[in-house]
Design a protein that fits this description.
Blueprint (H helix, E strand, L loop, with lengths): L6 H5 L11 H20 L3
Length: 45
């Protein structure tokens, strides 16, 4: 079981910054999460 307090140190690098994120992938991911939350609320899940 990994130590969650050290997870970031091993799975990310100093180059992991927001300017390196693919903008379209971020938009699609945000839309998917928003849709999931909307449908969960709509159907009282």
């Amino acid at each position: 079981m990994p130590d969650s307090q050290r997870y970031f140190d091993f799975h990310h690098s100093p180059n992991d910054t927001f300017d390196q994120v693919n903008e379209r992938e971020m938009q699609l991911g945000s839309a998917a999460i928003a849709s999931l939350i909307y449908l969960t609320d709509l159907y009282n899940l």
